[in-house]
Amino acid sequence: MFQDILAKIKAYDTIIIHRHMRPDPDAIGSQVGLKEIIKHNFPEKRVLAAGFDEPTLTWIAQMDQVTDEDFKGALVIVTDTANTPRIDDERYATGDFLIKMDHHPNDDVYGDICYVDTTASSTSEIVTDFALNTGLALSDAAARVLYNGIVGDTGRFLYPATTSKTLMIASKLREYDFDFAAMARKMDSFPYKIAKLQGFIFDNLEVDDNGAARVLLTQADLKHFEVTDAETAAIVGVPGKIDIVESWAIFVEQTDGHYRVRLRSKSKVINEIAKRHDGGGHPLASGANSYSLEENNQIYQEIKNILADKKTNSSN
Ligand code: AMP
Predict the structure, then answer these.
(1) CA-closest residue to ligand 1 atom 19
(2) Can you list the residues of the chain whose pLDDT is less than 50?
(3) Biggest CA pair distance of the chain
């Protein structure tokens, strides 16, 4: 399928690359990494990155201005985005040919070509794999953002999705000239206000006997700590640092009163819970939407049930 994708890239003069809303380093890394690879190998082509410039991530890369006109007769590639409603932005559908490249469970099969590898740690890993397998040259600029994407989605090679192939691909990227140590430091540091918010999370976390944990962040809390919804990405992993915590939910109240639910788990699969509550994602990292405090309680109960089952099973 990589050859089919390459043939399409060769066939089009304008290529527009999208990724998901509320981007993370892998969304931007895969999107801009692919853009840099195409630009490097086919300098005559127009390659544009579409989407909102997330202020906390503009240090990785900035998006391009893309007009409606640009989409006419263009090849559109969407990276790292499981389902069409999450594509940033919706004009992705107005191009001539659509390709999906992703590593999330393929619940929404879209695109004229759909390449999904759920064994990949990140879409940045897939994009690098694509270049290595099709003989396209990487560049320093591509390697920088792709490496960063892999570091982001693997939690610096910590999460179980990190395979020997991930490390091989990261090693190839490290052959290029970019300041990987500075990027790692940037990824591992946070503003002082986030440190304060971490303190709040530790203070307010509710944990049951089986390691099911939850915490609620209201709009008032976000205001108090002067953090945006997007900046809560910096504290999603925090409950998991506690040894007795197994699976957790962070409920973030939105301006319209509903809750964004950020679900994480060390080993027990939790994305089925996300799917039941207007969401989805990876087995151990997913997101959902809740429309009341009762639904928040229901989601927490579902996490508790899963961990209670686990305990029963392992004691059998
Ligand atoms: P987040 O907590 O937003 O970092 O999301 C973790 C993972 O869940 C990401 O891989 C997202 O793609 C996925 N995810 C988050 N929210 C949703 C949603 N509403 N629908 C489908 N997948 C989601």
Answers:
(1) 279
(2) 312-316
(3) 64
pTM (two decimals): 0.81
22: alpha, beta or left? (left if phi > 0; alpha if psi -120 to 50) = left
- What CATH number is given to the structural domain containing 252? 3.10.310.30
**For residue 274, what are the domain limits?**
193-315
Say whether both 175 and 292 belong to one domain. Answer: no
**Residues 97, 37 share a domain:** yes
Residues 173 and 80 in one domain: yes
Residues 121 and 18 in one domain: yes
Give residue 224's pLDDT.
Answer: 97
134 lies in the same domain as 234: no
For the Cβ of 25 lying below 6 angstroms from any atom of ligand 1, the answer is no
Atom 3 (ligand 1): residue with closest C-alpha?
Answer: 287
Instruction: Examine the domain organization and report whether 163 and 20 are in the same domain.
Output: yes
Q: From the alpha carbon of 104, which atom of ligand 1 is closest?
A: 10
Q: Show which of 160, 188, 216 is a domain's final residue.
A: 188
Q: Which helix (H) or strand (E) holds 290?
A: strand 285-290
Give the model's pLDDT for residue 311.
Answer: 53
Number of domains in the chain: 2
Task: Give the SS3 label for residue 17.
Answer: strand
The pLDDT of residue 315 is 34
Answer whether 178's CB lies under 8 Å from 153's CB: no
What are the pLDDT digits (tens) for 181-210? 999 889 888 899 999 999 999 999 999 999
The pLDDT tens digits for 253-279 are 999 999 999 999 999 999 999 999 999
Q: What is the pLDDT of residue 107?
A: 87
Strand ranges (E), 110-175? 113-116
CA-based torsion, 142, 148, 150, 152: positive or negative = negative
The residue whose CB lies within 8 Å of the most ligand 1 atoms, and thus the one to mutate among 54, 232, 286, 291, is 286
Last residue of a domain, one of 139, 168, 188: 188
